[in-house]
Design goal:
alpha/beta; Nucleotidyltransferase, domain 5; five-stranded mixed beta sheet; 5 strands; globular; DNA recombination; DNA binding; IS_Transposase; Transposase (Or an inactivated derivative); DNA-binding
Length: 226
């Protein structure tokens, strides 16, 4: 359970604000105005702190509680601007487009790819195959993971497929995330970017029906804090 102890606003208000921001294309000042029209006076800087604090906690619960996914994966990374510099959002979906995992990284290299694959395996189990583009870093990352699996006694390595057109699904899936962050016009810090993107990914998982069927989107988001 996520603690809201010491918060000056009710839990429901905080969760509504965080969900509204990560789900819809609004700025913090827009959200400040929307809440004020509903009788809730809260500063946009406070809204920013709520998203930074609670989004990663909710995302961690979403990773654990999401529905099972297929063992055929599609993995790719996309660019995100932070303080006028480009960083990399690693993302993986299964062959049906269901979100597997996501990770923001300052580097696009073998250690970053290996770290992402290791975390994705921890949260989703062992895939049968992973489709990637021709990135050398991602190739090296999967190779490193297969070496680790072999050392743990796993007899069958993960099949690696390097065919770009087969990766169109995850590349298309990037668009939903990019559409949401476009109005932000760049993040001020890496930690803020990472937290916000985690919340956006959770909202997208809810849209895809990966969490609690039968509940409205906000109820699903709020349930992840319980």
């Amino acid at each position: 359970m996520i603690s809201f102890k010491g918060a000056q606003f009710p839990k429901e208000v905080i969760l509504f604000a965080v969900f509204f921001y990560v789900r819809y294309t609004v700025s913090y000042r827009d959200l400040e105005e929307i809440l004020a029209e509903r009788g809730v006076e809260v500063d946009h800087a406070t809204l920013n702190r709520w998203v930074a604090k609670y989004s990663p906690l909710i995302a961690a619960n979403a990773r654990r509680r999401k529905a099972s996914t297929d063992r055929s994966w599609r993995m790719d990374e996309t660019y995100i601007r932070v303080k006028r510099e480009w960083v990399y959002l690693y993302r993986a979906v299964d062959k049906f487009g269901k979100t597997l995992d996501f990770m923001l990284s300052k580097r696009r290299n073998k250690p970053a790819a290996t770290r992402f694959f290791a975390r994705a395996l921890e949260m989703n189990g062992l895939p049968r195959k992973i489709v990637i583009d021709r990135s050398g870093a991602n190739t090296a990352g999967i190779t490193a993971i297969n070496r680790m699996l072999k050392s743990f006694g796993c007899p069958i390595p993960i099949e690696m497929i390097r065919i770009k057109y087969l990766n169109n699904m995850v590349e298309q899936d990037h668009r939903t995330i990019k559409k949401r962050i476009r109005p932000i016009l760049g993040f001020k810090s890496f930690s803020s970017a990472s937290a916000t993107l985690e919340g956006i990914e959770v909202a997208d998982m809810i849209r895809k029906g990966q969490l609690m069927a039968g509940l409205c989107p906000f109820a699903q988001f709020a349930a992840l804090a319980a």
